[in-house]
């Protein structure tokens, strides 16, 4: 007898997933690629591939962008390889490949030239990391040399120094000094 899917379990899962509005985002600290900027700044985007159709109506914005803006952007970003692939009867897409191995792809169907330019510049300036809410605007790779701050860091020393009692501070005297003791022995 063939197994049948349990519809009574699929429906609640589907409806709960449909209700997710992704109003939440992951949180993380600011991260930079290792040693980026030590000798010079290295852009994290390596390749951008633009696929479009030469004839379809949905690729009009991409074709106009390639004709008018792509040459200037390519000259101003010599470290980025930009490919254009005219593929017949395909949906226009812009795909960026980053140094950390991430690939981000935008669907450019029926987008205007300005929208494509905005997305293209965003791809050039991104690092390939996912967009997250930052816990802090700054982060350090190495901890502080001075140590972490505590509430008693800048207190005056008079508040944490106690005077010694007098009986400990008094110098003990003996009747015979060491010099006299050794001179008597010899």
Automatic annotation (TrEMBL):
<keyword id="KW-0496">Mitochondrion</keyword>
<protein>
    <recommendedName>
        <fullName>Large ribosomal subunit protein mL43</fullName>
    </recommendedName>
</protein>
<dbReference type="InterPro" id="IPR039927">
    <property type="entry name" value="Ribosomal_mL43"/>
</dbReference>
<dbReference type="GO" id="GO:0032543">
    <property type="term" value="P:mitochondrial translation"/>
</dbReference>
<dbReference type="Pfam" id="PF05047">
    <property type="entry name" value="L51_S25_CI-B8"/>
</dbReference>
<comment type="similarity">
    <text>Belongs to the mitochondrion-specific ribosomal protein mL43 family.</text>
</comment>
<dbReference type="GO" id="GO:0005762">
    <property type="term" value="C:mitochondrial large ribosomal subunit"/>
</dbReference>
<feature type="domain" description="Ribosomal protein/NADH dehydrogenase">
    <location>
        <begin position="54"/>
        <end position="127"/>
    </location>
</feature>
<dbReference type="InterPro" id="IPR036249">
    <property type="entry name" value="Thioredoxin-like_sf"/>
</dbReference>
<dbReference type="InterPro" id="IPR007741">
    <property type="entry name" value="Ribosomal_mL43/mS25/NADH_DH"/>
</dbReference>
<keyword id="KW-0687">Ribonucleoprotein</keyword>
<dbReference type="GO" id="GO:0003735">
    <property type="term" value="F:structural constituent of ribosome"/>
</dbReference>
<keyword id="KW-0689">Ribosomal protein</keyword>
